[in-house]
Design a protein that fits this description.
Layout (H helix, E strand, L loop, with lengths): L1 H21 L14 E6 L13 E4 L7 E5 L2 E6 L2 E7 L3 E7 L8 E8 L5 E8 L4 E5 L5 E8 L2 E8 L7 E8 L2 E6 L1
Antiparallel strand pairs: 1-6, 2-3, 3-4, 4-5, 6-7, 7-8, 8-9, 10-11, 11-12, 12-13
């Protein structure tokens, strides 16, 4: 009888340890829904007309000596070494600042259109601190765009070139890829 109880306790211990391993989160990456985001600019909103001939500049205390510049076709950074392109689009519709990569520094999170003839809309995350670019796109299948809703930055996925309602979610970097996650 003692041997039977010992075997049951051993199996209980094994299953409880297995449960601990299986209950680990899939990703430690945060989503946009619980990361504070700040709007730099948003011309994706139909109420705000794109200033095609203008530029907008931004300086961030996290990156002293760097001036970030938006123009309709891209975002650049200028410092003592000169100007360099960070990312582009045709056009860059909006840019938000949020720590998607989890390094404690703001990343540039943008909606951009891309293509010539066949145009799609996608989401870009640019990690300036590490010079890494992440992209959420599914050419000719889905379009992705950023929006603010109730103070949260969300990504909206719609069928490509469609006016239909889409799915909403957050963003995470999982296994080195920018991914839409459920809210």
């Amino acid at each position: 009888m003692k041997k039977f109880i010992a075997i049951i306790l051993l199996f209980a211990l094994i299953f409880s340890l297995a449960g601990c391993v299986n209950n680990e989160p899939i990703s430690e990456a945060p989503t946009l829904n619980n990361i504070p985001a700040e709007k730099w600019l948003d011309f994706y909103d139909p109420d705000h007309e794109m200033p095609w001939s203008d530029t907008l500049e931004l300086e961030l205390p996290e990156f002293p000596g760097v001036t970030f510049t938006w123009h309709w076709g891209g975002v650049t950074a200028t410092d003592q070494n000169g100007e360099r392109a960070l990312f582009g689009g045709m056009p860059v519709w909006n840019v938000y600042l949020a720590d998607i990569t989890g390094n404690g520094l703001p990343d540039f999170v943008a909606t951009v259109s891309f293509g010539s003839g066949i145009v799609d809309t996608r989401v870009i995350v640019y990690d300036f601190a590490n010079d890494e670019l992440y992209e959420l796109s599914d050419r000719m299948v889905s379009d992705y765009a950023l929006s603010m809703y109730n103070g949260n930055l969300i990504v909206i996925q719609t069928p490509w070139m469609s006016e239909k309602d889409g799915q909403e979610g957050g963003l995470a970097i999982i296994d080195g890829r920018l991914t839409m996650v459920s809210r």
